[in-house]
Specification:
The complex is a heterodimer of chains A (about 400) and B (about 170). With about 400 residues, chain A is mostly helical. Chain A has one domain. Helix content of chain A is about 65%, strand content about 0%. Chain A has 14 helices and no strands. In chain A, helix 1 runs antiparallel to helix 2 and helix 6 packs antiparallel against helix 9. Chain A is globular and about 80 Å long. Chain B is mostly helical. Chain B folds into 2 domains: about 80 residues, Up-down Bundle (Four Helix Bundle (Hemerythrin (Met), subunit A)), CATH 1.20.120.1200; about 45 residues. Chain B is extended. Classes of the chains: A mainly alpha (about 400), B mainly alpha (about 170). At the A-B interface, helix 5 and helix 6 of A face helix 2 and helix 3 of B.
Chain lengths: ~400, ~170
């Protein structure tokens, strides 16, 4: 085992040998290595988030035709570090009547819920936190902890806006969990296992080819779970001021901020792992570090698409958001699940052309039906016209139409 | 003391304290939150027993769904949140007696059970197979009947809930 091809297991074996040679019992060595690994992974993720925030702000700036952060360091790369230093020195303000323990526990739990996900994601063939047999269920269960954190924040702040924001956030997160969980059954079905390592190992052909409709539903639900635009009703500032984190200041707000950005990146990581083949790629089984690089590239691609959507789409109204979930995504997810189950059983097993083609054909049909249903629904819903068309530039001199200004 | 015993004792203390606080705390919201902590502790116990499936399902169902439901209903009934009456009713002496007798009796009965003295052994790889659980649930020789009965019960609850919540739209054509 060479250091270049597979650095982390190399370091682990070296550390184990060193500590055993000091005469420490193997049980203690294992515990120390676990604690060290968890610490390094979480601290690494948190530090990585500072770069992530910079990247997102920069890309967002470019999307919206403005420079983005460009003052601190080259291309503004140290902007987040300056922001962090500022946030460290800010005062903690606890609102009057706040419930102290839930109020202070919420930011910690919000970050912890996201970091827990990293425990089961395989980063390469040899580097993963834990290969539990129910990895996929673990992902969903830990998502539930994030909702508890939001409720704690909303309840503990003693603020009506925070409480309303928390209610709305949890309603959205719980709703979008339904199609997400149904669709997650499809990778499980195609693999025959819920372990994350097995799911990645089964993706010689990425599941986005075998189940594109499922992948798209999952992608939409992930954006909604993040609370990013177009699903950013959680922090709809025109309606809720700031949502559940309105009463937080200083580092406590920073925790929510970090949790938000880390959650977005983690979602991209989950999508890349479940539908784009994770670390799979040419040569990744022999040289595991290559697999890590493949995973990073795939994740960056998914993340970029998420950012493109975030910075170019307007926000849904809350009834539109709920309609999209319950009247469109959930039935579509159920149909996709059932048809994929039948087709997957009928066609011969293995990676032959018939099975791939069959699954693809079924997905295309599903896609067409969904498209037809959605467009016919969009035609039927009434669209209230607030005001008539207002010509901005008129060529010849004309009587300007009387402007009907609302209110 | 092995690391496993160490974690077990900590978890057990957390579960007991939070279960007690669930009952004796004044604010209903706080007792719901203590309840969440107790449920999480049970999930940790499952994880210590290497029953990862049950640990995850415990978090998923109880913390992710039921606890949030309870918190929602507590929040929506704001009047009941600041309860000022007595926390016990008339029969608390008898209840305390019965509970204590049951606990002591159970303890004495279980003491003679030799499985308690043994230490749990590490599970083999084949015990991790969740497929076995799935097969057991649909096998008519084993648990197919209880499984189906449970699903019918849940379906009945679902239909009942919809019936109660449904508003007849008579005004609309």
């Amino acid at each position: 085992m060479s250091f270049i091809a597979d650095p982390i297991p190399f370091i682990i074996t070296w550390l184990t040998r060193t500590m055993t040679s000091w005469g420490w019992p193997s049980e203690i060595v294992t515990v120390i290595l676990y604690v060290l690994g968890a610490l390094l992974l979480t601290v690494g993720a948190m530090v990585f988030t500072t770069m992530l925030i910079w990247a997102e702000r920069k890309i967002g700036g470019r999307f919206q035709d403005r420079p983005g952060p460009n003052r601190v360091g080259p291309w503004g790369i140290f902007q987040t570090i300056a922001d962090m230093l500022k946030i460290f020195t800010k005062e903690f303000i606890t609102p009057v009547g706040a419930d102290k323990v839930p109020y202070n526990l919420a930011p910690v739990l919000a970050v912890a819920a996201v970091l827990c996900v990293w425990a089961v994601l395989p980063f390469s063939k040899t580097v993963f936190g834990s290969n539990i047999g129910v990895g996929l269920l673990f992902l969903i269960a830990v998502g539930g902890l994030g909702e508890v954190a939001i409720i704690l924040a909303g309840f503990g702040s003693n603020n009506k806006y925070a409480l309303l924001g928390a209610f709305r956030a949890v309603a959205q997160l719980l709703s979008y969990e339904v199609p997400m969980v149904i669709v997650l059954l499809i990778p499980v079905m195609l693999t025959g296992s819920m372990g994350m390592n097995d799911i990645v190992a089964a993706q010689k052909i990425p599941f986005i080819v075998l189940a594109p409709v499922a992948g798209m539903i999952f992608f939409t639900s992930l954006i909604a779970e993040n609370g990013r635009a177009p699903f950013d009703l959680i922090e709809a500032d025109s309606e809720l001021v700031a949502g559940y984190n309105i009463e937080y200041s200083g580092l406590k707000f920073g925790f929510f901020f970090v949790a938000d950005f880390l959650h977005a990146f983690t979602s991209a990581l989950i999508f890349a792992t479940l539908f784009l083949g994770g670390w799979q790629g040419p040569g990744a089984t022999n040289i595991p570090i290559l697999g890590f690089i493949y995973l990073l590239i795939k994740t960056a691609l998914v993340y970029f698409v998420m950012l493109a959507l975030r910075f170019s789409l307007p926000r849904f109204r809350i009834d539109q958001m709920m309609n999209l979930n319950w009247k469109f995504l959930t039935p579509l997810a159920l149909f996709t699940f059932m048809t994929t189950a039948v087709v997957n059983k009928v066609l011969p097993a293995g990676e032959n052309l018939l099975r791939i083609g069959g699954l693809l054909a079924v997905n295309v049909v599903l896609w067409l039906i969904a498209n037809w249903a959605m467009s016919s629904y969009m035609v039927r819903i009434p669209r209230p016209v607030v005001s008539g068309p207002r010509p901005v530039a008129v060529g010849e001199k004309k009587q300007a139409p009387k402007e009907e200004v609302a209110s | 003391m092995s690391p496993q015993q160490f974690f077990f004792i900590i978890t057990a203390v957390v579960i007991l304290v939070s279960a007690l606080m669930t009952v004796i705390t004044r604010k209903m919201m706080h007792s719901a939150l203590w309840f969440v902590l107790a449920l999480l502790g049970v999930a940790v116990i499952f994880a210590l027993l290497e029953a990862s499936f049950f640990a995850v399902v415990q978090v998923l169902v109880y913390v992710g769904a039921i606890a949030i439901l309870i918190i929602f209903s507590v929040m929506l009934t704001r009047k009941a949140m600041e309860d000022t009456g007595s926390q016990v009713n008339k029969t608390w002496v008898i209840s305390l007696l019965i509970v204590n007798l049951t606990a002591i009796g159970g303890f004495l009965a279980f003491r003679s059970w030799e499985v308690l003295g043994t230490f749990p052994t590490a599970l083999m790889a084949e015990h991790y197979d969740i497929g076995e659980l799935g097969m057991a649930l649909i096998d008519p020789e084993r648990f197919a009947l209880p499984f189906e009965v449970t699903s019918i019960l849940l379906l009945a609850a679902l239909v009942g809930a919809i019936y109660i919540a449904f508003q007849r739209k008579e005004g609309k054509k």
